[in-house]
Amino acid sequence: xxxxxxxxxxxxxxxxxxxxxxxxxxxxxxxxxxxxxxxxxxxxxxxxxxxxxxxxxxxxxxxxxxxxxxxxxxxxxxxxxxxxxxxxxxxxxxxxxxxxxxxxxxxxxxxxxxxxxxxxxxxxxxxxxxxxxxxxxxxxxxxxxxxxxxxxxxxxxxxxxxxxxxxxxxxxxxxxxxxxxxxxxxxxxxxxxxxxx
Length: 197
Prior knowledge:
Layout: E1 4-15, H1 16-24, E2 33-41, E3 44-51, E4 64-75, H2 79-82, E5 107-118, H3 119-122, E6 123-124, H4 129-140, E7 147-154, E8 157-164, E9 167-168
Antiparallel strand pairs: 1-5, 1-7, 2-3, 3-4, 4-5, 4-6, 7-8, 8-9
């Protein structure tokens, strides 16, 4: 069994600036990856593996991580905490209180990289796929929110991965029977059909 990713589902979100910072600070990449190439096309971020091995042709598409880029408004102070309290002052009516402008909450627009979807959406191409999966796991432990669940095979072992809100959690692989192997499924048995010669 070669190294590959069999199943993957991701809902990771982290600030785009954090993604750039991680790759600019010389991360510890798998040995088969010489470098990372980051490209942004409109609202799509593509992180591609640059192979360390010369035997991989420059025309072979290497594994890449794909994320959508969205803008979220981030508030300095939670707006829900500011509401609900009674206005300060005495117990009598305050006729001018409603005419005053409400104090504006400091906020800024922050771009987020959203690695959301299944394997074909988030992790594309097969050359260096497992190595880029390891890179995705490193990105996942730096994420603010979201989950990464996966089943990967490294040579002879299956590996279950689960990362929730930047924290690695226990995970296991469970083998179940394939429901199509049940004999009484009510379908047509095309191999032993007397009407087909």
